[in-house]
Amino acid sequence: MAKAVIQYFSGGYWNFRYGNCYTINDNKQMLASAGSSKGLELILNVEPEEYVSISHTIGLRIVIHNPMDNADPEGNGINIFPGYETDISLSQTIIRRLPAPYKDKCVSYADNAFQQSQTQCMQHCIQEYNYKQCGCVEPSLPSKLNVKRCTVKNTTELCCLDAVINNLAIHGVDCNCPFPCLTTYYNERLTMAKWPSKCLLP
Questions:
Q1: What is the pLDDT, as a whole number, of residue 146?
Q2: How many CB atoms lie within 10 A of CB 96?
Q3: How many Cβ atoms are within 10 Å of 123's Cβ, its own excluded?
Q4: Which residues contact 37 (CB under 8 A, 6 or more apart)?
Q5: In angstroms, rounded to a whole number, what is the distance separating the alpha carbons of residues 172 and 46?
Q6: Residue 80 CB contacts under 8 Å (≥ 6 apart), including other chains
Q7: What sign for the dihedral angle of Cα 156, 161, 165, 171?
Q8: Is 117 within 8 Å of 70 (Cβ atoms)?
Q9: Can you give the pLDDT at residue 179?
């Protein structure tokens, strides 16, 4: 991988489902022009020999998001398969809403240190349900509660968390998480081809 790309990786974090995660372009570098030859190009090694025994797939999960938002690999993301070249073309959609007294009643999550997006607000709300019912919170979700995190080896706690999610899926949630006043969406279009070709093999 080129040094020019490595410097744009920021500190990693661990995700309960997808393992090690890293952010590219956290310092918000800008492209001067658009086009297939002007974007980011990476060659990545998935290192399958480093996977733990419980891993059931091999590959990568890529999340393309607004630099001001936190990545949400569970809610959004693209699975990238080893042995293929994947091209991702993007189009951006920006939605601007109005706060109260207008009917949108949007809020600016950027002003909240604990809830920097509507997704995080919903996650914190679900964690409150988890703690109320199970006495602990989901270890893979952020929480502003300074309480015990459920143990993945404790089947009673895990079953309780599953029951909470199932109940919320059926009956809905009562969370005060209005729409953000500014939302940026990226619409992705993927094309794939087998990689590498014979001419690139040693």
A1: 85
A2: 10
A3: 24
A4: none
A5: 38
A6: 44, 59, 60, 61, 62, 86
A7: positive
A8: yes
A9: 92
For residues 88 and 39, give the distance between their C-alpha atoms in angstroms, rounded to a whole number: 10
Half-sphere exposure of 57 (CA within 13 A, CB side): 10
Per-residue model confidence (pLDDT) at position 29: 65
Model pLDDT, residue 85 = 92
Cis peptide before 196 (omega within 30 of 0): yes
- The b-or-e profile of 78-93 (16+ CB within 10 A means b, else e) is eebeeeeebebeeeee
Residue 1's pLDDT is 34
Give the β-pairing of 182-194 and 19-24. Answer: unpaired
Spans of the chain below 70 pLDDT: 1-11, 16, 25-32, 53-54, 113-114
